[in-house]
Amino acid sequence: MTAILRRAIGSMALNALKVIVSFATGILVARGLGAEDYGTLAFLIASFTNSRMLLDMGTSAAFFTFISKSERPLQFFFYYGCWLGIQLIISLAFIVLIAPDDWIDSIWQGQQRFMVILTFAAIFSQQTIWMAITHVSESQRLTIRMQKTNLYIVLCHFIVVLLLVRTETIAIEYVLLFIALEFLLASVYMIRFFDYPSTVSDYSLQETFREYRNYCMPLLPFVWISMVSGLANRWLLQHFSGSSEQAYYAVAVQFSTVAFLIATPVFNILWKEVSEAKHQGDFAKLHYVYGRISRSVILISACFAGVCLPWTEAIISTVLGPQYMAAVMPLKIMLVFSLWQSLGAVNINMLYALELTRSRTVIGISFALISLPLTYYVLAPNSAYLPGWDLGASGLALKMVLLGASTQNVYAWWISRKMEWKFDWSSQFVVAFTCVITGYLWYYFVSAFAYEGMNVVILMVVGMLGYLVTIISMAFMAPFLLGLVSEDANMIKHLVLKSFDQERS
């Protein structure tokens, strides 16, 4: 168990560096492009991020689950590689040859076909090819090497974007082109570290297809409806509110997902360990891993929300400037959403790892069907044929909070019911309340001692350091306020001290 936690902590530490550099890059892109062009870039990326699910059909989740629970022959990887090639050919054929100009104009809201092709290349390289590489790496427990490679990618991208900004040549097409090239080269680099079985078995294509069919068929209705729901969020925002509101929402998402991105490697570790534990019938380990990772990601997200919420106006003003001040309210709301975003990833990965795909489908479809009309009404203007509330980015963020909290608690309840565990719904709200209240107390305390003309950055640093010391003290003195048990704090303390001892020896 300690090895899993050490792997998770090491991976999160490396990933934290990656997230910081990636976040800085995103800020450079937002400032360099301006609100209008940044909104267009965010819309293009979001459109393909959602639409790729149409062809994937849950096969990436099945692939990772299968290679995680037991060793697979070489043909299994070859078949999946062929499937990725088929996705590439079908997508390019639609964009380049089949779709007429008016389709391109309508779906991508006035963008040129070349820009659409470039966006597809970037997203396919980053979220299809690189995801497959990530899954194979994690199945072979190459977590640390994968995170180091991720760090190299974002450092390279940061340098490229910085050069583009400094030379005043930054443009949407350049950003997309470098994303595609960086992840493609990184994929080629990582492949050489994989340990494939040296022997070839008689594992047939028909047998492989049957296994994927049994896993993916229950997922298909949800995957397609989820794609439509996700695409509707960004398409309707672009259509009704324009690129500027798209940019404000994208900025809010970028800030609010920092905690989620830091914890991302843990989700793959969870998937791997749960798949293997289920295959071996080790349900005690399964319960242990799920409980500990759930508590950890909730705490990380709550701490991040608590430290940022009181300072959102100062953060936007300092980091992005006056052109993005309209993003303050969407950011506040999305920071609340981040509390359930990480928990959602834990629950969804659990369902995939346990192969409860039918449960994922039924619950997911139910909330996706609620999401579609709700998205329309929060975004549509009063003058529309069906009048809406015209809330723009803030309305979309509010919808995400309401549905996110509801959906993830239903998922958690269902997992607990299926595994015959106790469902603890209250701790997430206790943790959120503790962290947010602590953040605001430090904000008001620091503000009370501020004098006129004092730099707001200094105030933020003092307030955030005080907040961090308070949270760490709570972890050891009153861990229940942070959703922890004493064993959690003691184990983390033991691992940290042990790592320092190793450094000195």
Please explain how this structure is put together.
This protein is mainly alpha-helical and 505 residues long. The protein has two domains: 2-195 and 204-424, no CATH class; 425-500, no CATH class. Helices cover 82% and strands 0% of the residues. The protein is built from 18 helices and no strands. The chain has helices at 2-56, 59-69, 74-98, 101-107, 113-139, 143-166, 172-191, 205-216, 220-256, 258-280, 283-308, 312-319, 328-353, 357-379, 392-419, 426-448, 456-477, 486-504. α1 crosses α10. The longest helix has 55 residues, at 2-56. The protein is globular and about 75 Å long. 42% of the residues are buried. The model has no long low-confidence stretch (mean pLDDT 86).
How many separate domains? 2
Low-confidence stretches: none
Share of helix, binned: over 70%
Whole-angstrom Rg: 23 Å
Count of beta strands: 0
- Biggest pleated-sheet summary: none
Give the percentage of residues in beta strands.
under 5%
Structural class estimated from helices and strands: mainly alpha
SSE map:
Elements: H1 2-56, H2 59-69, H3 74-98, H4 101-107, H5 113-139, H6 143-166, H7 172-191, H8 205-216, H9 220-256, H10 258-280, H11 283-308, H12 312-319, H13 328-353, H14 357-379, H15 392-419, H16 426-448, H17 456-477, H18 486-504
Descriptors:
505 residues; mainly alpha; 2 domains; 0% strand; 18 helices
